[in-house]
Structures
1.
Amino acid sequence: MATAVREPGIRQESSSGNGQAAPQAVDLEAMGRAARQASRKLAALTSTQKNAALHAIADALEERSAEVLAQNELDISAGHANGLSEALLDRLLLTPERMRGLADDTRRVAALPDPVGAELESRVLPNGIRLSRRRIPIGVLGVIYEARPNTTIDIAVLSLKTGNAVILRGGKETLRSNLALVSVIGGALDQQGLPGAAIQYIGNPDRELVSRFLRMDEYVDMLIPRGGNSLHRLCREQSTIPVITGGIGICHYYVDVSAEQERGLDVIVNARTQRPSVCNALDTLLVNRGIAAEFLPKLARRMAGCGVEMRAAPDALPLLEGHGATVLPAGPEDWDTEWMTLILGVKLVDSLDEAIAHIQEHSQDHSDGILTQDWNNAQRFVDAVNSSAVFVNASTRFNDGGQFGLGAEVAISTQKLHARGPMGLEELTTYKWIVLGDMHVRE
């Protein structure tokens, strides 16, 4: 059985005997000190050293895949026993294919340019001083996340590539899987002579630890929550660490009167069904009333073929019924629901302006789009909708670090300070000013 690397402040516990993953005794103060020390060592690494560590992690993920999958199978079995939804179980699940994908993604991150040390700008002031800005690591990251164990690898590899240490706290549903993955990472770091405290995991699901973690501003420089509204609200209200929020969907598509309907349906199907449980999956479809009689029966037939249940506004309901799909009346709360399963809200609007108004009221600024062949309407939509990513005739599922060419992502930020959209390598750096003079003194 794989266990987490033993870091400062962490004591392994025996099995709880009740089918739950065994918790660990955790000393957060010791973890914070160790992370700070590790971050200073990581900041001094060359790109070659960091990339070697990432390749070692990728190799270890393949070599120790069976260990991780065995632990993940226990998490999945416990999830079934605890009545978790199929959507959540899909988020928890690791397969041989997904493990290979994690290894491949790790190698892709290694192949990306290292942003650390890059000069952002340089100029010579009138007094002869040369002034420049240079990218540096943020230092120590704290990431609280739920469900998906692949997030453990995404965060770890991006943190290492940018010279940041990280303290992770995943959901209790994936404790075994995450401990196994952290063990794999720790073994690879040890092989490369790097500090194991670079990637630490809070191996105890006690919620009290989260409250204490949120106040570790002496050691943690940036906090990233990945989860539902309650987690984000908790972090915003209680954290003394700067917080980057995001990862909550309620994603919209507006079907304009000029939309290319048949190909547009392909986009809608992909956005809703390609991975139903993720934050960039489509939740609400707004359809121009001028094409509703023609378009909605086609939509119903396609959704029926994909097993998608629709929640329809009163004027859309009769146009969707009778075409094989499951259609239910929408309630007021449905327009503010991130479905995370095969459900789609459908509402008619009279105009582009009404669609924009609905999105501005109900969107969580994640991923919203328009299907249109009218370029002026596309530009109006892009200008008015201020989500982290705005789409024209492309699936919302592309709002992803890998799809954007960032290699992977720590999170998708929906706020407007520091980072927005998929947070890749550059978003995990800050900068410092470099001032070069010739014995200059200020008068």
2.
Amino acid sequence: MATSVLPPSSEHAQPAEVLLEFPDNRLLIELCGEFDRNLAEIEQRMGVQIIRRGNQLIVHGDAELRVQAGELLQALYERLESGRPVEREDIDREIRLDRSDEDSDAGPDSQLEMFSGGKVEIKTRKKLVEPRTDAQKVYVKNLFEHEMAFGIGPAGTGKTYLAVAVGVSMFIQGHVDKIILCRPAVEAGERLGFLPGTQEEKVDPYMQPLYDALNDFLPGKQLAKLKEEKTIEIAPLAFMRGRTLSNAFVVLDEAQNATTMQMKMFLTRLGEGSRMVITGDRSQVDLPRGVQSGLQDAERLLTPIPKISFNYFTAKDVVRHPLVAAIIEAYDKDEISG
């Protein structure tokens, strides 16, 4: 694929253009998307204009932005050449990520051989998961490289989703024997009253986000079989008391709703060959008034320990609907001004 910058022909000419030529017209069609929707997405997000002429794309706009858009289009085309599709989330990821350090990152000899040419990828049974922001990229690396890692930040930043994906990947590769996912069974600001059914049926509504993540990474029949065999466990935090969790990948979700004693109990369950991930959002504590969040205490007490990784996310890392990031930023500003 050829790239060139066309200079203005006269003093009053239009700004220089970035011209990209693509040898495979079939891949170019996929790059542009149905009704050129991918090009429209890039134009809207980056503030440039992209014109398609035969097997060429011409990028107009601000000097820095048109170069960045050209690099983005090249990266997406190379993705297609490698046999991978280009979806909206792939465009979002390439726009967000700083690709300047990819070649200097861990190579094929890195832990678990998860980094190929500096790229961070998580292989599961159903899909290949790729971080979409720089903070997510660092987080995933730390999940593979540290026995205990914290993911702290607002909703929609992929803290739990990526943790479960890494757990499934490590399980598939045989690095752990079990996956254990748990949450504090705390109601989010409303009293649900008596819930009918068995013990499992009572707690399942609290665990649903964890089921949703697992369903994204494992076929339904395999997931059901692993749950039946207790190879995958999803349980309330209280059920962890008295256990030693060895050779397991353990995730504590919604950790801001664990008390200090519950957090200490959970962290001391770590056994040989295990990994622990603790995720939470300090702005969404649902504990009774006056009860200290165990996540805040853990952050205060454990930050000096070098083998424990603390990873932080902001509204810029939200990968849900764009309105979610705007809502989080509005509430954050209100808290600061208040």
3.
Amino acid sequence: MAHFKVEHLSIAFGGIRAVNDVSFEIEHNKIFSIIGPNGSGKTTIFNMISGIYKPNEGEVVLENENLVGLRPDTIARKGVARTFQNIQLFGNATVMDNLMLGRHIHMKTGIVSGACMWGKRSRAAREEIRHREVIEHIIDFLDLQSLRDQFVSNLPYGKRKLVELGRALALEPKVLLLDEPSAGMNTEEKDDLRIWIKDIQEDYKVTILLIEHDMNMVMGISDRILAINQGVKIIEGTPQEVQKHPDVVAAYLGEED
């Protein structure tokens, strides 16, 4: 079972501490949300977890292994998948191709070696079938059947966000980082997303770490919430505990996203 924790994470840019001594722990198969005003350090924490930034101090531990210092692709291979605030898909490729790209870290047979092997019982053929099965399940799960052969650039924004979510699931992660998944979505799309995130928790048994400005979504689906401001932890607790905390109310007072 994936056990995930962040211990004493700190990073500074130009002498200014963007994140200062932040620690938290997530139980397997729980939804843990990080909230805070714009510029409070939320995405910086995600960037340290996923290996884009190397923290000045602290550890990111998955199943007793410290991931700090590993390359982003190695961290992905260890079981940490991520969606981004700004969609990172290949617009001139189809939905199916984008989802298959999410399988690349699991592909043991390269293109050249695959071409040299033949027959249905070859390792390459078995591997291809396995990858296709994973992707077909995701397409059914996210109801993307009618879009599978369409170019991503032709899709509405909300559907593109879903494809990015699907590509993260294609990595078969132990920990799924969702960075502002509902940004740019309309009310109906947000309602659907809430259901999908809960379904991912139930069906995929994955630990979910969420950054989200929509407080209705956060309070409705989170098991625990961490509130930060200016890179410092304010409170961690249940949704009920966090939304009553005076510093959380003050941090959000008058802020609209």
4.
Amino acid sequence: MKRRNFIKNMGALGLASTVPGLSANNMSHGYALPKSTIKVEDGWDVIIVGGGPSGCTAAISAAREGAKTLLVEAMGQLGGMGTAGMIPAWCPFSDGEKIIYRGLAEKIFVESKKGVPHERKDRLDWVSINPEHLMTVYDCMVTQAGAKVLFFSRLASVEMKTKDTIDALIIANKSGLTAFRAKVYIDATGDGDLAAWAGATFKRGDENGVVQSSTLCFSFANVDTYNYINGPTLHGGNANSPIHSAVKSGKYPLIDAHFCNNLIGSDVVQFNAGHLVNVDSTDPWAVSEAMIKGRQIAGQYLDAMKDLQPKTFGGAFIVKTGSLLGVRDSRRIEGDYIFTVDDWLQRKSFDDEIGRNCYYIDVHKAGHKSTHYKKGESHGIPYRCLTPKGLKNVLTAGRCISTDEEAFGSLRVMPPCLVTGEAAGMAAQHAIVQSKNDVHKIDIQYLRKRLKEENQYFL
């Protein structure tokens, strides 16, 4: 295979033609890659890159519709932030009255609850996650649907057939470089790598390019469960939480009052706590530094809890920190429609909506105030937010769909990611059958009909 764009796209990746070990800031000269032929794996209908929540539901949905489906994941496990990232709880699945995220999202949620038997069976909001159990849920559901999974494999380049059509993806793993071809591709990378490298336009962060803070989640083991349950509420939203005293003391300079926590099993408490400010998740050097600092932050939270809550945490230790950084903000790929904060505030519905969302506007930046819906309120998610402008055979799903910065604070979390993934996977196969792989020209009403048959909820 002639790699027309390989050198160029390796440049977009940040690896191109550079001497190993040199960053963009200290690169003194280039390194020309020799011309070579690499193996091609074709015959796929749909290839999804990224095995987080949206990638998993995209794979299940595409395979269920009859597509020969491949899911490519950089790590050795599916689930993204719910597993490798160690998020301790699901964001609310209800609008305060009923489940909003249905279809595959509801099925995964129900199965995940079997891993946390201490949770009430009727609980729908902020339900704890057992990451090891959730991993097996995704493994089973993706493979049983008929999709193939390729672990420890990372997107290295995007090869274009024409300006608006992807020809192949260059994937790097233990086999070296391999070109994978499909008819339709789904970007579930979170950072929008696939679509951006294919030439899609995107926004990142606010008008100054500043992104929301990231978090490295972690868990403590050997916690006194009785005292944890019956002691003071630790969540930073509680004015009486001891975390506020810890922050004010100045003894733990890396921590702040962001201190979400859930009991995920006997004597194990998992935390979504602390902030890493303005981390560019598309810069591997920045992410590397953030991972190191995140582990230091976890250590200071443990020290603080041992000092202030010795009965609960006196014998506790850090059993695990996330293998994946909790990134809240990165590229937002520009689609045929950009969902805005005004749409969110208007509780807007759409003729092409493929699901609903009710999560509050949750932007992790200093001084930002959250905005919430009332019970029973939600908004529609337009299919056009999943279709990148200028690219025919590409869909986005999950954290990189088309929104503005404020609305992104609501749509970035796992439940709506599950919803957009299912719609993207289904739409990919419909594009193959209906419109010569053009995702912009599918029958939207048929897509909505099929989603409704799979129990998705929209107006």
